[in-house]
Amino acid sequence: MKTLIHLVSEQTMQNLLPILAFRPTRVVQIRSRPTRFHTAANNLRIAVAEASQLPSYHDLHPEFIEETINEDSPSVEHARAVVTRHLEANPNALVNITGGTKLMSIGAYLAAEVSRQCARLYCDTSGQQFVPLGPAELPDRPPFKELAASLTLSVVMAAHGLRPGDWTSEATTPELLQIGRAGMECYRKARDVFNHFREQVRTHFRAAKNRIPESRAQLEKLCQQPIPIPIGGEVLKDFLDAVAAAGLLKQEKEEHCYRPAVRASKDEVERLANILDGSWLELYVASLLHEGAQRWADPHWSVRIRKLDTIPIGETDVVAFDILKCALHIISCKTRVQGPLETLEALTQRRRDLGGLYAKATLVLLESRKDQAAQLTNWSRFLDIQLVTGEQIDELLR
Q1: How do beta strands 316-322 and 327-334 pair?
Q2: Across the beta sheet with 296-305, what order do the strands follow?
Q3: Largest CA distance in the chain
Q4: What are phi and psi of 258, to 5 degrees?
Q5: Which 8-state DSSP code applies to residue 261?
Q6: CA–CA separation, 286 and 183 (whole Å)
């Protein structure tokens, strides 16, 4: 199959997956007039170029042709005429009618119906299948789920307008993931002691105005002092040993005595303080996603956007591609929340900025006050955010 004709929309996966499945040499992108659809078409081209860097798609270098129907909402007849013109030049083309508006899809369907040589498809991401439309069979392709699982976050983010150079993330080494697992085990075994420890850590590192100190002398002093451990702190040993195994703490000869093993820089001290306090939860969630390879592709921790001039968002705890839903999935992890509505609204905006209208979002909440439960449940439903709390974390993220 040499030519694939599709309709451009902001539902990028329905355009990207057929290209990866059928490997055309030419892709005709038919779009309406608004600039955002030119942007979507360009993002798709960049995503395919990014996919070609992967061994599975090293030979995928299609020519892209962008065709604009000079209307904001093209009619059935105008869409049909444009698709017909391209089918006359490429009678054996494959037509993907999934994107565009409903009227554009109808026009593409009718144009393809006239030709007996071309095949038509509908990309059903929720059903995880390419649906053939009409008598012509679809070309051979890999299983749908295999295609979805092959996607990397770089490819998916590029399809949503963020090139690899636009964002960074922290590597999730086995040692860091073990911190997350040990932290959750410690929390479940001795919740009160662990929470008391976290409060002491917060005060220890952020004694002045709840901030990590700026001066070199204060940072060096913090790096020389032992980590505060409360009474009953022997239950923290596995967690602290995991942090030490990751090279962030060093255990002294005295029993239950640990000191920072990081440089006396604000970034490194703050990273350690965050991991001891609450970022271990992010690492635990990341560990679940790494284990759940049947559902999650290429999870990344601590995603930061470099293009802050155009996308003013900060760090995102965990981002992955949800194979089952064929969508970018944004996960925010909180040990507790102060302002539930503000937290959920911020997550909604971050989802929109990173993945557009069709990205998914989850708030992982370790614990909440009883008076917050109903509000959190109602607001998360209203904002279409999956809320995962307490013991649900293991069940709903696998």
Answers
A1: antiparallel
A2: 167-170, 296-305, 316-322, 327-334, 360-365, 386-389
A3: 82
A4: -130, 140
A5: -
A6: 13
Q: How many angstroms separate the CA atoms of 147 and 377, rounded?
A: 34
Instruction: Tell me how far apart the alpha carbons of residues 387 and 365 are, in angstroms, rounded to a whole number.
Output: 7
Specify the pairing of strand 167-170 against strand 249-251. unpaired
3-state secondary structure of 300: strand
CB atoms within 10 A of CB 32: 23
Phi, psi of 101 (to 5 degrees): -85, 170
* 208 CB neighbour count, 10 Å cutoff: 9
CB burial of residue 69 (10 Å; 0-12, 13-18, 19+): buried
Q: Which residues of 315-331 are buried (b: 16+ CB within 10 A; e: fewer)?
A: ebbbbbbbbebbbbbbb
DSSP-derived letter for residue 126 is T
Give the end-to-end CA distance of the chain in Å, rounded to a whole number: 37
- Closest residue by Cα to residue 139 from 77, 96, 79: 96
Per-residue pLDDT of the chain in tens (398 residues, 90 and over written 9): 699 999 999 889 999 999 999 999 999 999 999 999 999 999 999 999 999 999 999 999 999 999 999 999 999 999 999 999 999 999 899 999 999 999 999 999 999 998 878 999 999 998 999 999 988 889 999 999 999 999 999 999 999 999 888 899 999 999 999 999 999 999 999 999 999 999 999 999 998 778 999 899 999 999 999 999 998 889 999 999 999 999 999 998 777 899 999 999 999 999 999 999 999 999 999 999 999 888 999 999 999 987 655 555 668 999 999 999 999 999 999 999 888 889 999 999 999 888 888 899 999 999 988 888 888 999 999 999 999 998 889 876 66
Q: What is the dihedral angle through the alpha carbons of 307, 311, 313, 319, rounded to the nearest 10 degrees?
A: -80
Q: Could you give the 3-state DSSP secondary structure of residue 364?
A: strand
Q: Measure the CA–CA gap between 26 and 2, rounded to whole angstroms.
A: 6
Residue among 170, 159, 169, 166 at smallest CA distance from 306: 166
Alpha helices in the chain (DSSP H): 12-22, 35-51, 76-89, 102-114, 144-149, 153-159, 174-189, 191-205, 216-224, 237-245, 266-274, 280-291, 340-355, 373-382, 392-396
